Amino acid sequence: MHIYLLRDLDEFSETRVHALLPGLSAVTGQLDYILRSNESGQPRIATLIAESQHMRDYCFNSSACAAGGSVKELVKDVNRFIGKERVLCVVARGVWLEAVRELCGQGVAPADAPPLCLAHIHVTGMPAPAAGRLIETLQEQDILARASR
C-alpha cells in the first residue's frame, strides 16, 4: 500500500492547489481514496484533487487529519482501505510530522513540513508503527517540477 501524506495549507489558496494537481497526479498515479478533515481548507483541497482524478465519491472525513488529530486514529482510518493501492491523506502540520515518524520510525521525517509537502510512504502488510518505508518527501516546488517530466 502506498500512503501519501499531503500537508495542508496554513491559508487556503485555490491557485496553488490547482497548479499542484498535474505534478501530484504524476507522483501518486491514480488514487483510490482520499482522507481529510472538515477543518480549514482540507475539504476543498481534497475535492480539487478528487475532481482532477475523476474520483469525487472517494473522499472520506477523518477527524485524525485535523490539527491535534490522533495519529493512531489516522492509522486506524487508513487500515480501512487495506487492499487498495494508493491512499492520500490531507493532514495538518503536526499530524504530518507525527504520522511520518509513526509509520516510518523516529528520525526519518524532516524537522518541519512546509505547506503542500508530500510524504510518500510504502507499507507492506498493515500500516503500523515503523512498518512503512519513506520513499520520498517532496516540497511544493518538487511536485510542480514533476508535472513537466
Question: Could you list some keywords that capture this structure?
Answer:
149 residues, 6 strands, alpha/beta, six-stranded mixed beta sheet, Rossmann fold
Taking the alpha carbons of the first and last residues, their distance comes to 24 Å
Q: From the alpha-carbon coordinates, what is the Rg to the nearest angstrom? A: 14 Å
Task: Fill in the CATH topology.
Answer: Rossmann fold
In N-to-C order, the SSE pattern is: EHEHEHEHEEH
Structural class: alpha/beta
- Share of residues in strands: 15-25%
**C-alpha geometry:** globular
Largest sheet: 6 strands, mixed
Low-confidence runs of at least 5 consecutive residues = none
The helix tally amounts to 5
In total, the number of domains comes to 1
Helix proportion: 25-40%
Give a count of the beta strands, DSSP E runs of length 2 or more.
6
In the CATH hierarchy, what is the class?
Answer: Alpha Beta
Q: Write out the strand line-up for the largest beta sheet, numbering strands in chain order.
A: 3-2-4-1-5-6
- Return the average pLDDT rounded to an integer: 91
- Per CATH, the architecture is 3-Layer(aba) Sandwich
CATH superfamily: Phosphoglycerate mutase-like
Describe what this molecule looks like in 3D.
The chain has a single domain (2-146), classed as Phosphoglycerate mutase-like (Rossmann fold, 3-Layer(aba) Sandwich), CATH 3.40.50.1240. β2 (33-36), α2 (42-52) and β3 form a beta-alpha-beta unit. It contains 5 helices and 6 strands, in the order βαβαβαβαββα. By secondary structure, the chain is an alpha/beta fold. The chain has helices spanning 14-28, 42-52, 71-79, 93-104, 140-146, and strands spanning 2-7, 33-36, 59-61, 86-91, 118-123, 132-138. α1 (14-28) packs across α2, α1 packs across α5 and α3 (71-79) crosses α4 (93-104). It starts with a strand and ends with a helix.
